[in-house]
Specification:
alpha+beta, Immunoglobulin-like, 6-stranded mixed beta sheet, 36% strand
Length: 139
């Protein structure tokens, strides 16, 4: 059995395949760069003591170029053993499309938060450093 190929028929397909591969690689440098970005937090400042009731706090950070949304992680410190644990369901991880998030913190104890940027393709940046705050409202 002999198989014959026409070079003229394969050449356009080969060119198309190479073009697709080249275009697929164009965004990879941008995606790699985005994945290395770390959001910069603004407020409340690291180590801030808060005494307002109700325990409302607005978390803010700098805009990350190319971000479509942000994931905010929030943890509270267990007063019994000092370990960090997720806050109650619903506020421990939140997605937002702005550079701010208002939350009501569940307890009069230390908390910490950090932010990860997410671009339109779903690529995640590095998470920011954790910043701590503490509510001292007496109960």
């Amino acid at each position: 059995m002999t198989i014959k190929f026409r070079l003229g028929g394969l050449l356009p397909l080969l060119c198309l395949a190479l073009l697709v591969l080249a275009l697929a690689g164009c965004g990879s440098k941008a995606e790699e760069a985005f994945a290395k970005v770390e959001p910069r937090l603004l407020a409340p400042e690291d180590g801030k003591t808060l005494d307002n009731m109700p325990r409302n706090v607005v978390l803010t950070w700098h805009k990350v170029e190319g971000a479509a949304r942000y994931q905010v992680e929030l943890q509270m410190q267990n007063p019994m053993d000092g370990l960090w644990m997720p806050t109650p369901i619903g506020i421990n991880r939140r997605l937002t499309d702005t550079e701010r998030l208002q939350i009501t913190f569940p307890g009069s104890q230390p908390g910490r938060w950090r932010v990860t940027a997410i671009n339109g393709k779903g690529t995640r940046s590095r998470a920011s450093e954790w910043w701590r705050f503490e509510f001292v409202t007496g109960y």
